[in-house]
Amino acid sequence: MAIDLMWAFENEPPPLDFIWPGFLAGTVGALVAPGATGKSYWALEAAMCIACSVAGGDVLKLNPSKTGRVIYLAGEDPEVVLLRRSHAIGKHLGHSARVSIAENLVLESIMGKGLNIMDQRHMQWMLGFCNGARIIVIDTLSRVHHLDENSNGDMAQLVSRLEQIAYLTGASVLYLHHVNKNSAREGQTGQQQAARGASALIDNARWCGFVERMTEDKAELLSDRTFDRRPIGNDRRKYFLRFGSSKINYGEDLDDRWYERQAEGVLIPVELVPAKQENAKKGRATNVYTG
After folding, report:
1. Apex CA 14: angle with CA 10 and CA 15, to 5°?
2. Per-residue pLDDT tens digits for 6-51
3. Do the bridges between strand 284-287 and strand 257-261 make them parallel or antiparallel, or are there none, so unpaired?
């Protein structure tokens, strides 16, 4: 249906509905990271946050404005792994939050099931299974299609299919994806062009986030100890991950934030401060990190 331009000229438009800041409801978004970084944990915790209609379920502190039914399709991990992750996250949730999440989150392993959303029969199953969801998480994108990942034409078709799913189910679609080897090697995993494969994958998505490990430089410049601001250091940096947005088409960005990896891989927000660096030449302490 065409837009009534006279109505648009003369009336205030409805407010934008965001899954979390920057990720508009009803659109397709991507979460990009190297393998074994923590993106699946981040995505599962985010899914629980959206599924929880009571206080105490927002482990990541995303502060969503709305909650609802969530579908999480895990293509890389078997059921036993998903059970372990859910149990680990549950240790950080109260009873009422657990009950709410269990009612609203459908977590299913599709590993080995050959789901191909470009196949019309599989597409119809997807539409029926996900109808009415607030968000659908696909972990990872490569597990639900057989197209050429390096072809812009193929990847434009793939994102278009995800947009169809969003339109016909009313859900947002978040797909997880890996970075390319050059970005991982050069420490540029937070850049928009870091995603593996054709550029259409990110060009055609409306939001792109990233999760990346703490670098050696950041480990010397940041501290999680407010009392003495001792640098995190190279031996502990593996426990800290940065989340941020590399592409936003609508609304305001979330500030980059840090998470500390807890037991079993659960990510918990952490406040980091500039580390105190001893300046040997001047004989005094200085703060060398400014942001």
Report:
1. 135
2. 999 999 999 999 999 999 999 999 999 999 899 999 999 999 999 9
3. unpaired
What number of other Cβ atoms are within 10 A of residue 245's Cβ? Answer: 22
Provide φ and ψ at 186, rounded to 5°.
-95, 5
- Is there a contact between 88 and 264 (Cβ–Cβ < 8 Å)? yes
How many helices, marked H, and strands, marked E, lie in the chain? 9, 15
Tokens at 97, concatenated: 């939050």
Q: Name the pTM for this structure.
A: 0.93
Residue 140, preceding bond cis, omega within 30 degrees? yes
Give the bridge partners for 268, in sequence order. Answer: 260
Pick the closest to residue 25 from 33, 16, 14, 36 (CA basis).
16
Phi-psi region of 73 (alpha: psi -120 to 50; beta: other; left: phi over 0): beta
Identify which of 96, 127, 195, 106 has the alpha carbon closest to the alpha carbon of residue 155: 195
Phi-psi region of 139 (alpha: psi -120 to 50; beta: other; left: phi over 0): beta
The dihedral sign for the CA sequence 290, 188, 19, 61? negative
- C-alpha angle 245/126/21, rounded to 5°? 20
Position 182 pLDDT exceeds 90? no
Cβ burial 128-165 (10 Å sphere, 16+ → b, else e): eebeebbbbbbbbbbbbbebebeeeebbbebbebbbbb
**Best CA proximity match to 32, nearest among 162, 164, 167, 199:** 199
